[in-house]
Amino acid sequence: MPNTVSPNALPKTVRWAGALVTLQGLVAAGFAIVAVIRGATGHDQSVTNGYGFAAWVAILGGAVLAAGIALLTGRRWGRAIAVVAQLLLLPVAWSLLTDSHQVPLGVVLGVVVLGALGCLFSAPTSRWMAAEYGAYADEVSPEEGNPGADEPEEPRDKKG
């Protein structure tokens, strides 16, 4: 089966998640560019190496950006990377809200992360993901029963 679907068949939740994750990847790419510029202009690098930080952020941000674009274009593999990225960003948002005292940034990041997670785990997105594997369980008619079972289970008497 192909791993893509027509953009019209994509649930809105997948498109929204793809947009949010793509935005996160673009922000990470921006941080990588800023880190390279800061390193090249001679800013203090006693705490962290700007070039190493830029490489690290570019690799992770590139994966997140690729996942976002994959979701926007209907590729299911992007969801796994997007979910992991959101789960890793939750503690970052919490740290911004508490220890770092960057409440506005923490609120923005938290809203984006929770919104993306909500979209990634929503029912339409889950059905879209399951479509790769065949029919949905809720589409089985009562006459068909459970197609995976060999024989119907006999009712048990109350004695056991």
Strand content: under 5%
Main sheet summary = none
Quickly give the structural class. mainly alpha
Mean pLDDT: 84
Tell me the distance between the termini: 46 Å
- The total of helices stands at 5
Overall geometry comes to: elongated
Using the CA coordinates, give the radius of gyration: 22 Å
Low-confidence segments? 140-149
Q: Summarize the helix and strand pattern as letters.
A: HHHHH
Strand elements, count:
0
Helix share, percent: 55-70%
Explain this structure.
The model is unreliable at 140-149 (pLDDT under 50). 61% of the residues lie in helices and 0% in strands. It is mostly helical and 160 residues long. α1 packs antiparallel against α2, α2 packs across α3 and α3 (78-97) packs antiparallel against α4 (103-120). The longest helix is centred in the first third of the chain and has 29 residues, at 12-40. It has helices at residues 12-40, 50-72, 78-97, 103-120, 123-130.
Give the gist of this structure.
The chain is mostly helical and 160 residues long. It contains five helices and no strands.
